[in-house]
Amino acid sequence: MRVLIIGGGFGGLFCARRLGGTDVDVTLLDRAAGHLFQPLLYQCATGTLSLGQISRPLREEFARHRNVTTLLGEAIDIHPQSRQLTARRPDETTFTLDYDVLVVAAGMQQSYFGKEHFAQWAPGMKTLDDALHIRQRVFTAFEIAETLPPGPERDGWLTFAVAGGGPTGVELAGQIREMATRTLAHEFHSIEPKDARVLLFDGGERVLKAFAPELGEKATKSLQKLGVELHMGVHVTDVGREGVTISPKAGGPDEQYTARTVLWTAGVEAVPFARHIAKVLGAESDRSGRIAVEKDLSVAGYPEIFVIGDLAGRDNLPGVAENAMQGGLHVASCIRRELAGKPRRPFRYRDLGSAAYIARRQALLQVGPIKVAGFFGWLAWGFVHIAFLTGVRNRFSTVTTWMTTIARESRSHRAFMLGATGLPDQHYTWTVWDALTPAPSEAPVDRDDG
């Protein structure tokens, strides 16, 4: 049996792991060739953890499983009648893969709700590139502010806007504010990093709507104590070079906020391939692109095709890592049972709780009736997340780094890079105004004006 898994996230990883060593040929196709622990991306973006501590090459992960092949490529087309899939290499050429069972674990991408031009000014948080991009923008903002005289322009660079009050938005806002008041507090001469403003916008009445109200209230108090400015009940209706425009849900005039760094965590949607496969298979999907699946997570009319993780549209399954992990293990179990001549079982999701990190010694953990906040929530958050990290090496390394941050307020992974002036694909600057710079054949411009 040939099993083709699309995506090396939690769902694809756990499915391939469970099938390792069985009498099945497994191919794991991923556009990045590595597994990423997305829940800790913001720790990488704000300099606490390195890339290697939240990611691992898939080839290394499956080196001991001789029946698992990992390939670099992006799924772009499917031919269900012939059970073939077309993938694209990074050089734009394509290749074809055959399958008997297809597992779609491609995940979701950042959604700008139809306003894709927001992405130019407000990067999301879904990939390692996103984390590095945000790290570059955040730390560069402080550096640019250091070169400016006091006034509105400097204030704009010291203002950070975060759209979305879910776990990622709360975590980013808390980390930026903590970084400004602690890590960078004594490293600049012309500016006071602690004066940096962090604005958090969300359309709901409170942050962390998926958590119990009492935990959401504690999160609100923790953020306010840090100095994060909360703006609830509003929609971000425009994002540009200078900042954001906000529209109150209750009505009233729009408000504009000058912020040269805007980060977007307000929504997710299916990746293009997921929408394509739903169209080809004639499967129902919701507005976000989640594909309707049967009780065993297969697509109606195509028992050989499974959809797991964030893309599985059934029973209001949450878009969290635990759902993807359990879905991957379930599909692997279905395959193993069929090999043994046994019927499939329906998928049952078990809620293992939710966690959110706000700042040093401030986190939330909710597991059924158990609700923990503050310092003990922080400890619980750390060990829960570390327990799910891929590979023992990553766990040990991350534990060491994390324990170090308990003893001292350090962020040792703050390095960021700006591109070369003369290379068109590596701009020194990162705004649309690059289009106004001279072509590489022209004389270089002296950039000592900041």
Automatic annotation (TrEMBL):
<dbReference type="Pfam" id="PF07992">
    <property type="entry name" value="Pyr_redox_2"/>
</dbReference>
<keyword id="KW-0472">Membrane</keyword>
<keyword id="KW-0560">Oxidoreductase</keyword>
<keyword id="KW-0812">Transmembrane</keyword>
<feature type="transmembrane region" description="Helical">
    <location>
        <begin position="372"/>
        <end position="392"/>
    </location>
</feature>
<feature type="domain" description="FAD/NAD(P)-binding">
    <location>
        <begin position="1"/>
        <end position="328"/>
    </location>
</feature>
<keyword id="KW-0520">NAD</keyword>
<dbReference type="InterPro" id="IPR023753">
    <property type="entry name" value="FAD/NAD-binding_dom"/>
</dbReference>
<keyword id="KW-1133">Transmembrane helix</keyword>
<keyword id="KW-0285">Flavoprotein</keyword>
<dbReference type="InterPro" id="IPR036188">
    <property type="entry name" value="FAD/NAD-bd_sf"/>
</dbReference>
<protein>
    <recommendedName>
        <fullName>NADH:ubiquinone reductase (non-electrogenic)</fullName>
        <ecNumber>1.6.5.9</ecNumber>
    </recommendedName>
</protein>
<keyword id="KW-0274">FAD</keyword>
<dbReference type="GO" id="GO:0050136">
    <property type="term" value="F:NADH dehydrogenase (quinone) (non-electrogenic) activity"/>
</dbReference>
<dbReference type="InterPro" id="IPR045024">
    <property type="entry name" value="NDH-2"/>
</dbReference>
<comment type="similarity">
    <text>Belongs to the NADH dehydrogenase family.</text>
</comment>
